[in-house]
Amino acid sequence: MTKRALITGLTGQDGSYLAELLLDKGYHVTGMVRRSSTVNFERIAHIQDDIEIVPGDLLDEMSLRHVLAAARPDEVYNLAAQSFVQTSWQQAVLTGETTALGVTRLLNAVRDAGDDVRFYQASSSEMFGKVVEVPQTERTPFYPRSPYGVAKLYGHWITVNYRESYGMHASSGILFNHESPRRGLEFVTRKISNHVARIKLGLINELRLGDLDPQRDWGFAGDYVEAMWLMLQRDTPSDFVVATGETHSVQEFCELAFKHVGLDWQDHVVQDQRFMRPAEVDLLIGDPSRAADELGWTPRTGFAQLVGMMVEGDLELVARQQRV
Ligand code: NDP
Ligand code: GDR
Asked: Is 252 a catalytic residue?
């Protein structure tokens, strides 16, 4: 029998990679997409015809029930969220409605859809925030540092709570930063790779950034969606840290990205107060050993390879944009 999956957040970075993975595995894939006045399918244009697209919004529980009825899924991957940390200070209530309460709305709809439906929640290393332990594991206490981190922590605990209260097959992936050429332009890695490409091609000369010191455990999104799938194949639901176990600063990302095209980052990067955050997460580094032992998951893409892939992706994109 063909397995059926529902992905919320289909149009986002991870939604597109997960949809590719599940289609490759022979799944029938339904993607939930929220209504907007312009179509927003850049990341899924190449697979759009293979996916059933259903309108729905995490802010509207009735719409989620309709989506569940249409999709009749065996597995639900909740990737939808207001996911940009910086915006969460300006839109704290919306972030809470979507990224926190949205999870409860979806869990309610999934619970009513049947006992056999498996659920994945996209939890985040931002829940560790001002870290109390290095590296961070599944047992590290949480200390979120932004309205986004606080909202994700709610989403995480409500998933654990519904698992324990109702016996749902609900798992949380505590994923550390993962990037790709499909990453949103507002996130620092893609902002850097896109600016590097435009600087290299002579279109601009400057890259304005906030704090260059924060360190992140950066992996490749294409590797990470596989861990999501593996979690739902287990008999027993549980929560897993998904990370590379390596950390690098924003400055290191800059150095490597500029070096990739033969430039010196110091000639172009300008620090700008506008991109500083009211509270910063200084250091994240995950310990993925439980995922390795129990899921058989390990990351395949190293840091330098990731930086190179993103800069190359933007060089191609910017050159194409210049031609049209
Ligand atoms: P993106 O920001 O690229 O995608 C977010 C998706 O959520 C988009 O499809 C967006 O739709 C959708 N969305 C936003 N609000 C709503 C809503 N109210 N109803 C329905 N859909 C909505 O995020 P990523 O792909 O990078 O991340 C996927 C998930 O994983 C997110 O939950 C994120 O918080 C979490 N996460 C991400 C990590 C990372 O490093 N990428 C690490 C850890 C967790 P639209 O296109 O219309 O805006
Ligand atoms: P993050 O990603 O907050 O870790 O959340 P982001 O790329 O936005 O920031 C990473 C670090 O870079 C610093 N920084 C800048 N960030 C941005 N966006 N723009 C800048 O100009 C800039 N200058 C410096 C930030 O201060 C920060 O320290 C991502 C999101 O995908 C979340 O949804 C996810 O949960 C976490 O990763 C894990």
From this structure: no
pLDDT 10s digits, 211-249: 999 999 999 999 999 999 999 999 999 999 999 999 999
Q: Which of 79, 103, 178, 190 to mutate to test the pocket of ligand 1 (most atoms within 8 A of CB)?
A: 79
CATH 2.60.40.200 fits 183-216+247-282+301-323, yes or no: no
Q: Classify residue 195 by burial, with Cβ atoms within 10 Å: 0-12, 13-18, 19+.
A: buried
Does ligand 1 have an atom closer than 6 angstroms to the CB of 122? yes
Q: Whose CA is nearest to atom 27 of ligand 1?
A: 14
Q: Are 4 and 73 in contact (CB under 8 A)?
A: yes
What H or E segment, with its residue span, contains residue 162?
helix 147-166
Task: Give domain limits for the chain.
Answer: 4-178+218-242, 183-216+247-282+301-323
Q: Tell me which of 20, 75, 126, 179 is the catalytic residue.
A: 126
What pLDDT digit, counting tens, does each position of 182-198 carry? 999 999 999 999 999 99
Q: For residue 290, how many other CB atoms are within 10 A of its CB?
A: 17
